[in-house]
Amino acid sequence: MSDAENSPPTEPIDSPSQGGPEPGSDFEPVSVFGDSETTMDLRPGADNCYKCSVCDTSCPVAEVDDDFPGPKFQGPEQWRLKRKEGSEIDDSIMSCSNCMRCDDACPSSVPLSQMHNTARGEYVDEQMDKLSVEYVRNRILANYRTSAWFASKVPRLANAVMSFGPTRWVMEKAMGVTSEREFPAFATQTFREWWRKRGGADASRRNAREARERRGDPADADKKIAYFHGCYSNYNTPEVGKALVHVFESFGYEIVAPEQRCSGTPMFANGMLADAERAAEVNVSSFADLVEEGYDAVASCTSCSMALKQEYPELFDIDGIDDVAENTFEALEYLRIQEDLEGAIADASVEEQAFAYHAPCHARNQGLDRQALELFRELDGVAMEDVGDSCSGISGTYGWKEEKYENSMKIGEDMFEHMHDAAGDVGMTECPTCAMQMEHGTGYEIKHPLQLLEEALC
Amino acid sequence: MSKTPSALVLGGGSTGCGIARDLAMRGVDVTLVEKGNLTHGTTGRMHGLLHSGGRYAVSDQKSATECIEENRVLRRIASHCVEMTGGLFVQRPEDDDEYFEEKLQGCRECGIPAEALSAEEAREMEPYLAEDIERAIRVPDGAVDPFRLCVANAADAIEHGARVETHAEVTDVLVEDGEVVGVEVEHASDGGSADGLDSFVHGEPGTTEELYADYVVNATGAWAGQIGEMADVEVAVRPSKGVMTIMNVRQVDTVINRCRPKGDADIVVPHETTCILGTTDEEVEDPEDYPEEGWEVDLMIDTLSELVPMLSEARTIRSFWGVRPLYEPPEVGSEDPTDITRDFFLLDHDERDGLPGMASIVGGKLTTYRMMAEDIADHVCERLGVDAECRTAEEPLPGSEDFSVLRDWMDEFGLRSPVGLRSAERLGSRIDEVLGEWDGPNPTVCECEAVTRAEIQDAISQSGTELNAVRIRTRASMGNCQGAFCCHRMANELVPEYDEPTARDALDDLYQERWKGERHALWGEQLSQAMLKHHLHATTMNRDGDPAATGEEIDFGAFDAGESEGELSDTSGGDRSGDAVADGGRRTRTDETEGDADGDS
Amino acid sequence: MAIREDVLVVGGGIAGATAALAAAESDAKVRLLSHKKSTLRQASGLVDVLGAIPRGGSTDGSGAVSDGAAPADEGSTDQSELVADPLAAIERLPEDHPYRVVGADGIRNGLEIFDDVVGDAYEGGHTDRNALVLTHGGTVKPTARYPQSVAPGLASAEKKTLLVGFAGLTDFDAPAAAAHLDAAGVPFDVDGATVTFPIQFRDDALTTRFAKALDKDQSGVRKRLADVVSEQLDDHERVGFPAMLGDDAGEEVRADLEDRLGAAVFQIPTGPPSLLGMQLEDLLFDALDAAGVRISSGNLAVGYEANDGRIESVLVDQRGNEVPYAAEEFVLATGGLVGKGIDSDRESVTEPVFGCHVPHPEDRYDWSEPAAFGAHAFARFGVVPDGDLRPTDGSGSEEFENLRAAGGVLGGADTAREKSAAGVSLATGAHAGRRAGEEATR
């Protein structure tokens, strides 16, 4: 298995790739408005809409930003009004934060986020000035992994530079990146460095076998996963990746950590679909082979699992993409389906601790917003409070934009209040950017559920 | 006589409006009467195809040639009513090769630009075409909005001094000394408005009026026979019905014709936000009373999915039927209505029946309406001794003057770009007048079709309280919710200019009219939509149990007046921040109000 | 199977929530499975039990005036007859109506659960009689329970009333609604005024934007709103606004306005987007949490596994993976045509999760009536329950031993014309949930 760290993570930008999904007997959007896949025809998706406005009531942006007309307008309405020629995408599409709560709300399966992603891609491609500060800023934010890759080579220096006041002042003034936020610290040892040092897949196989023996599972049990750690667990919070490894090995799973790029989430949110597709091609190709060998793909970040499960097959046509999508799981989701996690937790206990838990929007969209609460309710020593069903407000790169910062904090206000009210002073969430926002708004330390699971079970 | 020669045009369809405009421009004093709204008859009930002539290129080359000529004229004078989508004649494997060649040849003979495309090329243009099609011919078909076209013609006629009277049904043809001298009309009591509105003059509701003129033109299409009867002349129109099924979205952006001789269900016309599937051809007795049947709708979907497979699963939002005013000289005697010519006939009742003062115009098609009108106007002018040139082919209709639809709508009128674009497509050059002069908030009233308050108010100023007339001007309530979310908003727009009972009646009429067509689409998504609509209007608004409508007296005392009757609700002063919920609980927004129970005042 | 409970409720609307709460009373382990947001968000937030007896088609045709019902001018119209005493009127419903299965006691049980859930947030529980609330269409409607913010606006309270609408809002026109109410003969003077909302938002700003601004008292908006309304107040004793007076802090906003205006302030329920519906949804889900019900939402139930006439698990599509959710007893509460618990195509009407029998006329043109407010057959589409609310097949036998149905998925009720949607959901949800709990823990 090759290692992503041997090469810079993104190719030179600028050549939009060709091709789109093939029309099939079922509705498959096809490109009718132009050459690239960023201009798929989603008008038929408007057939599902019966205008009930539930998407609008679930939109955290429309609630604080009246420039944003809401997901119903941006989605099925705008698409239905679209023509092959002469249509423009309303520029308010750039105010959508891609939290995808509209997807989670729609009782009629309108492909809302797909519509938004596609329209945003078209807007960025055709209507946005490629030399504008906004475009360049969005491009850089969307390609976080590129920056992170460089930074990880010299983490201490990077951390020092990024927390250096004048640097931040210049970034805000020249690039529109808010100086209100602290950049996340880069780990001195990335997850992959740790993993390699630990012995990679071979070590994991040995550990898994030992665990099976201990558990009384058959030695050759078909328990193997391919870990999609994403950028953040690799560069910033390797402790989450390590926790996943320890927890899954304790249940007897062999783990591999295949070559991977960014899942594409920040690129979708900024309409950089060509960048996202290039990343997706690498990810799909490396995970598709493993899926064929019987591995399931498991992610620790809910936005990454969302991208692989939903956005990839919706937006791209890549060989093996459906197999990968169907065999991708979020970590807790996977264990809950496969293992008696509840039973394991019931027998465990940890030191007394209290958490303020926030369910990320992308977890909600996969139906996973309550699993951590449900599980840890049964864990001895733990008090866990849900801090509400609001959006944290950061939505990946949204809250990093200077002009969106204030709205981002308004959206997060409810969550911050509830966190302060909660008994615990440690936050918990699955999503790295929600974690940034939680920390930014409260100063709390934020943990991932896998870390608590590790503490309970390993 | 020094008096201005006058003419009375019966029928507010495309032909009648076209004649009225033409005559008015030539200086004739014109009055047009229509028993319903403009386009009430056939014009408003067609699929909106602007023929390239391709459809007639084999069977009727004279019509084909006229079509391509008029197609070019309309693109020039009625650009805001026309969308040049282009058209394809698509051949399937089971369709005749020879006919395809004949079609291509025929188009060339008639001067219709035609280009043969491979299946691949055709599918590149229209990706949802079936994978197994053989090939296609590309022609300059387009889509025309018949409502807008008629309204523009009528408005221009008024501009040139004509009187246009809608909701005025002809109840008698006045004959004096063996000559037609006018008609008697009855002004409807339940439509239109008694107020003198800017453009369409309305008589006092419920009254009759005798209108006199030097010449009467019977342009009532499928109803021409009924007018004829009033004057004791026979006009043997053979009304033939056809179904049109409206899809929720545009599956294609090009007119798709089946390339085969003739047959039902052989065309898909992209029309505004929708596609219209057409049609059938079946002779009926009475143009106002004929069965509208489910098999016809099924036939459209099943047959046309052979060309565009996704139609079989796609959502339809309604179906409607139109009646063609087919006519052929009685001696021809075609059995099948599809064999009847689509040409038009001018019946001069003086020459034909010895009844001077009136002519009837029958047959024909929308694409060539202007040319027909020109012929009739020539005839009328000749009878009236007016010597004036026809100018209708040169002068653009109101709304179609030089105009670009691509502007910055947000900066200019505070509109989102798709809303601005759609408004511009409907209003054409009138957009500056309608939106630019609007003062006050301009919310979107119909979200499906992106119609704002300013446009609704403009339509109300033209057509009064009849919301169906507002609908055909603006397309409000013609989208996928079929009025579920906007019928009542449109009615609200009538107040305060009109009183509440008037607005309520208008709402009921529009709601029922929408229901009539939506009933033909009630399965799948549209049935869910209809149920939601039923819930909104019956459950949430209780419009079906409205005491104001029934006139029933409700015993308000029999219903509870509330537990805390007489007190202000005591909710002030509590500490609303609330405490954290119990272990494991889910903290939601409403915890705050619950927390209030512990709060002190 | 890793995911297993005693009772699995499929559907997250009022019926599903009530069923889950009723099942949880028996100490059963309960999971509620919901797909997306429920139709609660489209509904007005009122809890109707039986507000009207539709005339023509779906009733027993007796036309008799029940105790307390508004006097009917028989046969003069196809409009529905408003009902003041819902429990007394249920016997006038058709035989196959779900109320006829659960009876008045069933309705009482459902309301009892509801009243526990909502506490002070709703009123109307002090009596069996309906109250008349004002609708945003300018009519009055009988309902059994209504949010406390709606309570000061009841039509039977004789108080001079001012309705206030906002210039850019198209759904509610206050002067039109006032004139309409007057035409309906309400026993109070009513006027309408259209004012400009003190903060100027874009014309297409959503109602949640207005509510949020009031919640947070952004730019002193509450005082400014009160100032604008004061100019129109005169001697009006109460002021009605469309239901957008805040969301999280709605009661605080209302109290603040009452304080400043010196008049009672009430909300008029609206169609979607319905803040009142959302607030009710939150109350229900809080109650589910408090009762220890587990909730999985976001994914669609697509099928089931059964053995020997008993369902063993429901299969949930988690982005391409069919994950089994096992239980002893199941409740089907997926809603009707709007909630997608009932599906249809050109030929047939189906219940998509378990394939239960849904009777319907063969010709789809018999599914509806020519009159827009007619006695549409489609409005009554749904599964046919036995005496224990188990869906039955075409021959009248139960489809599955351990499956009960509740709410909109049940056929036989024209809940739109009857104004009975929430009541049917509460009554049948309570019955189905209680029975499922009993059976699972027996």
TrEMBL record, chain A:
<keyword id="KW-0411">Iron-sulfur</keyword>
<dbReference type="GO" id="GO:0046872">
    <property type="term" value="F:metal ion binding"/>
</dbReference>
<feature type="domain" description="4Fe-4S ferredoxin-type">
    <location>
        <begin position="85"/>
        <end position="118"/>
    </location>
</feature>
<dbReference type="GO" id="GO:0004368">
    <property type="term" value="F:glycerol-3-phosphate dehydrogenase (quinone) activity"/>
</dbReference>
<keyword id="KW-0004">4Fe-4S</keyword>
<protein>
    <submittedName>
        <fullName>Anaerobic glycerol-3-phosphate dehydrogenase subunit C</fullName>
        <ecNumber>1.1.5.3</ecNumber>
    </submittedName>
</protein>
<dbReference type="InterPro" id="IPR017896">
    <property type="entry name" value="4Fe4S_Fe-S-bd"/>
</dbReference>
<dbReference type="InterPro" id="IPR017753">
    <property type="entry name" value="G3P_DH_GlpC_su"/>
</dbReference>
<keyword id="KW-0560">Oxidoreductase</keyword>
<dbReference type="Pfam" id="PF13183">
    <property type="entry name" value="Fer4_8"/>
</dbReference>
<keyword id="KW-0479">Metal-binding</keyword>
<dbReference type="InterPro" id="IPR009051">
    <property type="entry name" value="Helical_ferredxn"/>
</dbReference>
<dbReference type="Pfam" id="PF02754">
    <property type="entry name" value="CCG"/>
</dbReference>
<dbReference type="InterPro" id="IPR004017">
    <property type="entry name" value="Cys_rich_dom"/>
</dbReference>
<keyword id="KW-0677">Repeat</keyword>
UniProtKB/TrEMBL annotation, chain B:
<dbReference type="InterPro" id="IPR000447">
    <property type="entry name" value="G3P_DH_FAD-dep"/>
</dbReference>
<feature type="domain" description="BFD-like [2Fe-2S]-binding">
    <location>
        <begin position="445"/>
        <end position="495"/>
    </location>
</feature>
<feature type="domain" description="FAD dependent oxidoreductase">
    <location>
        <begin position="8"/>
        <end position="369"/>
    </location>
</feature>
<keyword id="KW-0560">Oxidoreductase</keyword>
<dbReference type="InterPro" id="IPR007419">
    <property type="entry name" value="BFD-like_2Fe2S-bd_dom"/>
</dbReference>
<comment type="subunit">
    <text>Composed of a catalytic GlpA/B dimer and of membrane bound GlpC.</text>
</comment>
<dbReference type="GO" id="GO:0005886">
    <property type="term" value="C:plasma membrane"/>
</dbReference>
<dbReference type="Pfam" id="PF01266">
    <property type="entry name" value="DAO"/>
</dbReference>
<feature type="region of interest" description="Disordered">
    <location>
        <begin position="541"/>
        <end position="601"/>
    </location>
</feature>
<keyword id="KW-0274">FAD</keyword>
<dbReference type="InterPro" id="IPR041854">
    <property type="entry name" value="BFD-like_2Fe2S-bd_dom_sf"/>
</dbReference>
<dbReference type="InterPro" id="IPR017752">
    <property type="entry name" value="G3P_DH_GlpA_su"/>
</dbReference>
<keyword id="KW-1003">Cell membrane</keyword>
<dbReference type="InterPro" id="IPR006076">
    <property type="entry name" value="FAD-dep_OxRdtase"/>
</dbReference>
<dbReference type="InterPro" id="IPR036188">
    <property type="entry name" value="FAD/NAD-bd_sf"/>
</dbReference>
UniProtKB/TrEMBL annotation, chain C:
<feature type="region of interest" description="Disordered">
    <location>
        <begin position="418"/>
        <end position="442"/>
    </location>
</feature>
<dbReference type="GO" id="GO:0004368">
    <property type="term" value="F:glycerol-3-phosphate dehydrogenase (quinone) activity"/>
</dbReference>
<feature type="region of interest" description="Disordered">
    <location>
        <begin position="57"/>
        <end position="79"/>
    </location>
</feature>
<keyword id="KW-0288">FMN</keyword>
<protein>
    <submittedName>
        <fullName>Glycerol-3-phosphate dehydrogenase subunit GlpB</fullName>
        <ecNumber>1.1.5.3</ecNumber>
    </submittedName>
</protein>
<dbReference type="Pfam" id="PF00890">
    <property type="entry name" value="FAD_binding_2"/>
</dbReference>
<keyword id="KW-0285">Flavoprotein</keyword>
<dbReference type="InterPro" id="IPR003953">
    <property type="entry name" value="FAD-dep_OxRdtase_2_FAD-bd"/>
</dbReference>
<dbReference type="InterPro" id="IPR009158">
    <property type="entry name" value="G3P_DH_GlpB_su"/>
</dbReference>
<feature type="domain" description="FAD-dependent oxidoreductase 2 FAD-binding">
    <location>
        <begin position="6"/>
        <end position="423"/>
    </location>
</feature>
<keyword id="KW-0560">Oxidoreductase</keyword>
<dbReference type="InterPro" id="IPR036188">
    <property type="entry name" value="FAD/NAD-bd_sf"/>
</dbReference>
